[in-house]
Design goal:
Helices cover 71% and strands 0% of the residues. It is mainly α. The chain starts with a helix and ends with a helix.
């Protein structure tokens, strides 16, 4: 797939999701679909970070601290990792 195609598809998906949020239509998104989207985004970020090195997960100012905490909590809970273990892993990365 060409880079321009990837951009157009990811831009369209991001715009669609942002529109749902802006219009407060998140109830229309099935839980399984939300999990599938987040799972795919997490795996994409992880693959890019392993290949290219760690980089900011999102552009500055695009999510709130609450958004980050909710997602971080959900991700840690999904893989049964405690905050302590995350801290230990982070110390190994530096």
């Amino acid at each position: 797939m060409l880079s321009s195609e990837v951009f157009l598809r990811s831009d369209a998906l991001a715009s669609y999701v942002e529109g749902l949020i802006a219009l407060d239509h998140t109830q229309e998104v099935d839980l399984d679909d939300a999990q599938r989207l987040l799972s795919a985004a997490v795996r994409l970020y992880s693959a890019k970070a392993e290949r290219d090195g760690i980089f900011p997960a999102v552009p500055a100012g695009t999510i709130t601290a609450t958004d980050a905490m909710i997602v971080a909590h959900g991700l840690l809970q999904a893989v049964n990792i405690s905050v302590f273990e995350l801290g230990l892993w982070q110390s190994w990365m530096h």
